[in-house]
Amino acid sequence: MKFGSMIKDVLSSLFKRPATEKYPAERRPAPPRLRGKLVWNPEKCTGCQLCVKDCPANAIELITIDKVAKRFVMKYHIGRCTFCDQCVVNCRFKCLDLSSEEWELAALSAEPLTVYYGRDEDIRFLLEKAALPGAEETPCEPS
Q: What DSSP element (H or E) covers 4?
């Protein structure tokens, strides 16, 4: 590249506005079809586990607490998810959706990248049972 053409480019770029946005200081609304964090509606879920089978990244685990009472806990690994929407498309009961509001998912540690969905008492039961020595990671039925 010749020096003269480079000077011309430098001088012309001095009078142009920057092409970058001032994010996060200035935020724009997210596009409506943006694929963000997975949202689960446990009232509609029947525990068929089709979402688990269709997830190519193994980002979803559906843990059955009591199938008759429809008590499930969904363990969602955000760090594994590719946001492909395969689980949402194949859910027959429309209990899954990818949120267009929750898309800023960066974290400094891996701890917040695992989300538990379900009733609070079911999640508490699952975490207490998993904390016991010699316990399996995915308990099936309460004792």
A: helix 3-14
